[in-house]
Amino acid sequence: MIPVIALVGRPNVGKSTMFNRLTRTRDAIVANHAGLTRDRKYGEGRVGDHRFMLIDTGGISGEEEGIDSEMANQSLQAMDEADIVLFMVSARDGLLAADHLIAKQLRQRGKRVYLVVNKIDGHDPDMALAPFFELGLGEVFATTATHGRGVTSMMEEVLEQLPAPEPITEAQPKGIKMAIVGRPNVGKSTLVNRMLGEERVIVYDHPGTTRDSVYIQYERFDKPYTIIDTAGVRRRKNVSATVEKFSIVKTLQAIDDANVVILVIDAQEGIVEQDLHLMGTVIDAGRALVIALNKWDGLDEAHKKFVKNELDRRLRFVDFANTHFISALHGTGVGNLYKSVEEAYHSATDKLSTSFLTQVLQDAISEHQPPMINGRRIKLRYAHAGGSNPPIIVIHGNQTAKVPAHYVRYLEKTYRRALNLRGTPVRVVFKSSDNPFSDRKEPVPQRSARRAPRKGGKS
User: Fold this and answer.
1) What segments bear the compositional bias annotation Basic residues (predicted)?
2) pTM for this one?
3) Binding site, annotated residues for GTP
4) Lowest mean pLDDT, pick from 172-181, 255-264, 265-274, 306-315
5) Residue 11 preceded by cis peptide, ω within 30
6) Strands 84-90 and 392-398
7) Which parts are annotated binding residues?
8) Dihedral Cα 327, 331, 336, 341, nearest 10 deg
9) Of 317, 348, 379, which marks where a domain is finished?
């Protein structure tokens, strides 16, 4: 198994920057603001022939209250999971009391620890490193994660102490990627923890707890899945903090990266405009969709009936998506989500036969012909698959650029019904056949060199 390395330290010492540097990604949000990282974030790094799993964590200050104490617990769990801990401190801040506290926690756990003094740029290395030897953690490395200074040499020395690396093989499939999205405080992280069966991400009774998109791989009944916990998305006019804007971008990227999106709605509040906006975003991205109304068990029968009527009235444009009534806190109905996720995924990714798609097209035309345009009827000749997730059906014919929107919707519904597609939008794309005679000019009849004289005219 590949080694697990955890990045721990106080807030704003550069852990997320180091994470992005070692994984060669931009998965972790980085800004000049303390406390951005809250949940544990995992990524794969590689230096030379060595592969390793990297964990980014939230900062520990020793004065945690409220949500900060949950962030500290996530960091402590990462220490327990790791084989090696890179304890990061800041040369700009110097040695602080919180650093002593973290060093004490590490010594109690008996982990192999390497002290990394980050943000060394602009400082004399010898002078900057001297105070940190007081921690008694052995060798000290000087780095600047933003520029990569000292990072490679540090990792080479750290990884030298490990057993010979395993041969690099093809990555195992990560299974269906499910993004959990919704407005703030609707229970997304609670649902993630319930589906995982552990307190994997921070749950706190305050909107905006999750700031980053957290990818978590796991297995259920020997089937691999990747679940993505995302930040809540509020209406644009309510978004002011720069950090929240970064979080929303991460959420939109997670939607685009997912195979299936589980949209969580607070049943107590009912369906609001932002829920509809998020559904539109998912459909525009072409992703399969499952709708989960959370906090259902706390409603009386009259409110449940009202919410169901609202669903029928307002969600007609996503009638292909399965809807579940769940309680993430108590687990009611959560297991049923997997069946809909599997169904939506297979509908979105199954291979489609050209002959069958063409037959469905011909049947649809026989039942309802395309309209006449400028005295000529639009002709649709054959269809074939053009992609998956979402299923894309390419239809060839003449005057296809003039196919009206209502006829496109008719074809989409016909294909969804004929292919028995559930949980996924369908896209119909048209291509006009080239006219082989478009470049040929009409022959101009040559005039007779000699015209017959008119009657009564001069000869």
Assistant:
1) 448-459
2) 0.61
3) 9-16, 56-60, 118-121, 182-189, 229-233, 294-297
4) 172-181
5) no
6) unpaired
7) 9-16, 56-60, 118-121, 182-189, 229-233, 294-297
8) 80
9) 348
